[in-house]
Amino acid sequence: MPDDPRSSEPAPDTASDERGDSPAAHAGTPADGHGDPAAAVGSGSPEDASAAALGNMPAETPAAEEDSRERRVSLRNSVIFGITAIGAVILLVIAFREPPPASAVTTDRLGPAPGEQVEQYLVDARKSLGGGDADQHWALVSFTEYVAPQQLPAVADGLRISGVIQHVPIDRVQTPVITVATPGGDEPAVKSGEAAAGLVATQRFRDQRSADIARVTASRLRAGCACTAGIVVRGTLPQLRDLATQPGIRAVQALPPDAVAGRFAVSPLLPGSSDTVTPVPDDGPVPTE
Length: 289
What we know:
With about 290 residues, the chain is of the alpha+beta class. The chain is about 35% helix and about 15% strand. It has helices at about 25, 35-40, 45-55, 60-95, 120-125, 150-155, 185-190, 190-200, 210-220, 235-245; strands at about 110, 135-145, 160-165, 175-180, 230-235, 250-255, 265. It has a five-stranded antiparallel beta sheet with strand order 4-3-5-2-6. It has a two-stranded parallel ribbon with strand order 1-7.
């Protein structure tokens, strides 16, 4: 019968050196110290020793996995941010080195702006004729009264007409303003009323009132009405100043000599404008003809 374990003397503690317990002792070395350490680890082969050593390494915890994943995401974000920053710098360099594309639209303008005082425009128009150069200038000629197209060659006084502004005046009805480009010679200017009627007839209209206005406008233009509000001409400053003194001429405004044909806006000073340039009321009845 075995001795009572409670009466046995306790086994002496295993001593350790200054470096602490050896791996062999923790791997199962007998307490008497006479066992083979290699046998205690495994079968003694290098493969078994490596397996045992790997088995003793602590397993990666979920917290460690999460920390590793966060480091990878942070590294990826840093790379993306760096690429984006480099691209932004390249775009800025290109933007500052490449000149902006030239615009086909200029700030040159003939005629008063919407809301402008008529008297101020007349003063500015007279100032535009000052100067001593001999260059050709584009200019807007505004009439005191509407004239018929047949009168235009005489009104232009020999200057080349490049555009005719047609507008059928109807009390308290907003009718369209049509600018007809005309080549050299008197005939295109004389036929500008018919050309304007054709332009109106090709338009599409949003409601019946607009269609009725277009119909009466085209009808009167074809009949050769006195509906010309102004013309665009080309001449020297002395010629334009002389034209401005002729009867029936309300104003002549000249552009600088470097203005390019087709790249300036034209808004006529209608004969009925007397205070501020604003649209006329559109609450009157539309005539049948």
